[in-house]
């Protein structure tokens, strides 16, 4: 089977700070707006502007700009590349946490205690909340999107506006993290910062004879607004 090269460069941008980032899980559960409709906060707008300046300096003319359909990613992408054509891709959507979105942790514990027990038994990675997705479902979207990048943008530069948890699972797959490491990062909120930039570059692994994605943690992760706001 033909092995397509990866894009020359894949640039991941997490959305800037949104209204949801300022709320607790319980506060988000009672907010009369769905999580897909959160706007950027005033700080998030400034973060996006500064990250946009950095992106336009280092990647002024990407071959494709892609974003999830969430409002906060749309607003981030628009501020970073104001006049560019941005393509929406539903595979980049953040994880759907189902009943936890409307009830919150304590609400589920009160009204559906068996769900808490099921999650504890099955584990964070495997357990699928009612009306939502488990982590393997999101990873399936990631695999499909990665395949699409190879099929359509080999040797090109693609900028993707996405979500923190999604990007963490992308890292899990690319770097081969075990489930336990991904769960630890989730529990400790050890994910990329709002309006940060994570860069991967296509390459060839001579030893294994295949195309790979390369990432240098020292140079390929940037928070352009840090220290400026």
The largest sheet, given as strand count, sense and whether it forms a barrel, is: 7 strands, mixed
Low-confidence stretches: none
Oligomer: single chain
- Helix-strand pattern, N to C? EHHEHEHHHEHHEEE
CATH architecture of the largest domain: 3-Layer(aba) Sandwich
Look at the structure and give the CATH class of the largest domain.
Alpha Beta
Distance linking N and C termini? 50 Å
Number of helices: 8
What is the fourth-level CATH superfamily of the largest domain?
Phosphoglycerate mutase-like
List the helices and strands and how they pair.
Blueprint: E1 9-14, H1 25-30, H2 42-58, E2 64-67, H3 71-80, E3 86-88, H4 99-111, H5 113-122, H6 135-152, E4 157-162, H7 164-175, H8 179-187, E5 197-205, E6 210-214, E7 221-222
Parallel strand pairs: 1-4, 2-3, 2-4
Antiparallel strand pairs: 1-5, 5-6, 5-7
What does this structure look like?
This protein is α/β, with parallel strands linked by helices. Helix content is 41%, strand content 15%. The chain contains 8 helices and 7 strands; from the N terminus they run βααβαβαααβααβββ. The chain has helices at residues 25-30, 42-58, 71-80, 99-111, 113-122, 135-152, 164-175, 179-187; strands spanning 9-14, 64-67, 86-88, 157-162, 197-205, 210-214, 221-222. Strands 1, 2, 3, 4, 5, 6 and 7 form a 7-stranded mixed sheet that branches. A hairpin with a 4-residue loop joins β5 and β6 (210-214). The longest helix is centred in the middle third of the chain and has 18 residues, at 135-152. The N and C termini lie far apart (50 Å). The model has no long low-confidence stretch (mean pLDDT 95).
């Amino acid at each position: 089977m033909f092995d397509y090269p990866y894009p020359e460069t894949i640039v991941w941008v997490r959305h800037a700070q949104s209204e949801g980032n300022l709320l607790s899980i319980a506060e988000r559960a009672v907010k009369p707006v769905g999580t897909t409709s959160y706007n950027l906060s005033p700080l998030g707008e400034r973060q996006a502007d500064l990250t946009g300046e950095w992106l336009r300096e280092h990647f002024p003319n990407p071959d494709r700009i892609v974003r999830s359909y969430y409002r906060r990613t749309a607003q981030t992408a628009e501020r970073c590349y104001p006049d560019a054509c941005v393509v929406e891709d539903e595979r980049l959507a953040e994880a759907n946490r189902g009943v936890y979105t409307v009830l919150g942790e304590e609400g589920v514990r009160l009204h559906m205690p068996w769900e808490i027990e099921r999650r504890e038994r099955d584990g964070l990675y495997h357990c699928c909340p009612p009306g939502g997705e488990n982590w393997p479902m999101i990873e399936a979207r990631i695999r499909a999107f990665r395949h699409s990048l190879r099929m359509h943008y080999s040797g090109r530069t693609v900028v993707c506006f996405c979500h923190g948890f999604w990007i963490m699972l992308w890292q899990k797959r690319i770097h081969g993290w075990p489930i336990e490491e991904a769960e630890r990062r989730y529990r400790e909120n050890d994910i990329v910062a709002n309006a940060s930039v994570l860069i991967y570059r296509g390459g060839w692994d001579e030893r294994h004879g295949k195309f790979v994605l390369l990432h240098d943690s020292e140079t390929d992760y940037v928070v352009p607004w840090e220290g400026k706001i």
